[in-house]
Design a protein that fits this description.
binds iron/sulfur cluster, 3 domains, 19 strands, binds thiamine diphosphate, seven-stranded mixed sheet, Rossmann fold
Length: 537
């Protein structure tokens, strides 16, 4: 028996490896990054799995789907908002179905530790009419991932595996099972299956809807969905990591409520019905949206029994759950802290690292703004450079979603803004910044795009960036940007005046210009220098 201490993310990755995946495809994003990184590390020794970062989540999803169509098992992983980017292939893969098992591992971020929203991926799975598995601990993350591959092949549907930050980023011992061999590649393929011409798709969509009752039956029979009848006043329906919090409180209660733990969706309807029929009141404890609560309550909320949860204020409507909230919901009392610390900690807002190239870029940009006579607005994107919104820089205004800087900047130019500026990182440019630039180049939009090329995807820990260095210039030329308005600067204090002057000139140019601020992130530089030093020793 082999036991490994794994993060929730790593347990999913290991479950997929042991289920016999042939490929892992991903774009970094907290809290899901470590899923792919585990496969990448494992593969350095095993060299049996294709594992290379993709340009964005849509690409990663489609690469995994293509592998699945060839009969092989594939994993694609991303943070929750990554699925917005991959939504088109995700929704349609439910209709084409899959060949080899396909699992989409999603890192949701309730409480928004490092995300722009707290959307709940269970809702996305329901929208696409596919399975969603939701583990409550690391062992289940491993076991359910293995089950997800079997289920995916049995139902010929993708399976979404939902993790949340606390589970993704905490460790526990996981007992591993025997690894499976990889599937053989299909040699005889029915291509009609994968072709969503409306005539085909209409039939397949009907078939998909007819599968839903069987998916509910699967959940009713699944051993991970556990119904326990205890006291009959209250019945608790609890899902995913909330089950851990519930169990912590459950142990301490004198009167134990009945409960149903849900780990697979579509939810086990018969088990829910049994609990509902047995108890006087239902309480729903789920991490994320009140999805189960909405389903049970119905539109008119006029069932004979009370349904308690986020809508009734028993559980907070937003943010992350914890055992204290669950205790209060179940007992009506505040939990006394084990240790009380009466100390106010000073706030520590995030900041760019000392010596960060982005800091020098922003100082020069602010100086250039002063020199330009007229309204300058700076649209930013998502990356370390988003911290330029905070003092002392206060250099940027917007941050919405990846790639939005260039398209929003163009929209502002189209609205008549005289000096619109977009700021985007090299990885984000490759993710979704190139496509909006094509339109701006073709229309000759008067705007300035700054690509902050620090040679890496710094914000998520320094992963490989697909669009960094010299090839960027060729890419920009290929997209239609005039060579004389592609400028490269080195953001260093000694170049401050020169850099500000170039920015001013390009802002005043009546056409499209791109400035590449080219200097390595100090963190990755430190890492590569210490690696070189160790190798030399
Ligand atoms: C759709 C989506 N995918 C992934 C992320 C996570 N994420 C935030 S910024 C970023 C990329 C940052 O790299 P880069 O643009 O090169 O800027 P840097 O942090 O290096 O300055 C990623 C992957 C996200 N917020 N949204
Ligand atoms: S990690 Fe790199 S890019 Fe990010 S703030 Fe630090 S130095 Fe700047």
């Amino acid at each position: 028996m082999t036991i490994e201490v794994l993060l929730g993310d790593e347990a999913v990755a290991r479950g997929a490896i042991d289920a016999g995946i042939s490929g892992a495809f991903s774009y970094p994003g907290t809290p899901a990054t470590e899923i792919f990184e585990y496969v990448e590390r494992y593969n350095k020794k095993a060299n049996s799995i294709h594992a290379v970062w993709s340009a964005n989540e849509k690409v990663a999803f489609e690469e995994a789907l293509g592998m699945s169509y060839m009969g092989k098992r594939a994993l694609t992983s991303m943070k929750h908002v990554g699925l917005n980017v991959a939504a088109d292939p995700f929704m349609n893969s439910a209709i084409t179905g899959v060949g080899g098992g396909l699992v989409i591992a999603l890192g949701d971020d309730p409480g928004q530790h490092s995300s722009q929203n707290e959307q709940d991926s269970r809702v996305f799975a329901r929208f696409a009419l596919v399975f969603c598995f939701e583990p409550s601990n690391q062992q289940e993350a491993y076991d359910l991932t293995r089950l997800a591959y079997e289920t995916s092949e049995k139902f010929e549907l993708p399976v979404l595996m939902r993790l949340v930050t606390r589970l993704a980023h905490s460790r526990a011992g996981v007992t591993l099972a025997d690894p499976k061999k990889q599937n053989e590649i299909y040699t005889d393929i029915d291509w009609k299956k994968w072709n969503l011409l409306p005539a085909v798709s209409r039939v397949k969509y009907k078939t998909l809807t007819e599968t839903i009752p069987k998916m509910h039956d699967f959940s009713d029979e699944c051993k991970f969905n556990k119904l326990e009848i205890n006291d009959k006043k209250l019945g608790v329906i609890v899902s995913g990591i909330a089950y851990n919090y519930f169990m912590e409180v459950f142990e301490t209660l004198e009167t134990k409520p009945s409960y149903l733990k849900i780990s697979t969706y579509p939810e086990p309807l018969k088990k829910i019905q049994k609990l509902y029929d047995t108890v006087d009141e239902i309480m729903i404890i789920e991490e994320g949206y009140p999805m189960l609560e909405d389903s049970l309550r119905g539109l008119l909320n006029n069932g004979p029994k009370k349904i308690l949860g986020r809508h009734t204020g028993h559980i907070p409507r937003t943010g992350e759950l914890n055992p204290d909230f669950v205790y209060k919901a179940l007992t009506g009392k505040e939990k006394k802290p084990i240790v009380s610390i009466d100390m106010k900690l000073p706030g520590r807002p995030p900041a760019l690292c000392k010596g960060c190239p982005h800091a020098d870029t922003y100082k020069a940009l602010n100086a250039a703004k002063e020199m330009v006579k007229g309204q300058v607005e700076v649209f930013s994107d998502i990356g370390c450079y988003t911290l330029g919104a905070l003092p002392p820089y206060n250099a940027i205004k917007s941050c919405v979603d990846m790639g939005a800087s260039i398209s929003m900047c163009k929209g502002a130019a189209d609205a008549g803004l005289k000096y619109p500026v977009a700021v985007i990182g090299d990885s984000t440019f490759g993710h979704s910044g190139m496509t909006p630039l094509i339109g701006a180049a073709q229309e000759g939009t008067s705007m300035t795009v700054m690509i902050l090329d620090n040679l890496t995807t710094a914000m998520t820990g320094g992963q490989h960036s697909l669009t960094t260095g010299h090839p960027l210039i060729k890419v920009l030329e290929g997209l239609g940007v005039e060579r004389e308005h592609i400028k490269v600067i080195e953001p260093l204090p000694k170049n401050h005046d020169e850099n500000a002057k170039i920015m001013k000139e390009e802002m005043e140019y009546e056409g499209l210009s791109v400035i590449i601020a080219d200097r390595e992130c100090v963190q990755t530089l430190k890492k590569s220098l210490s690696k070189k030093k160790k190798e030399a020793e």
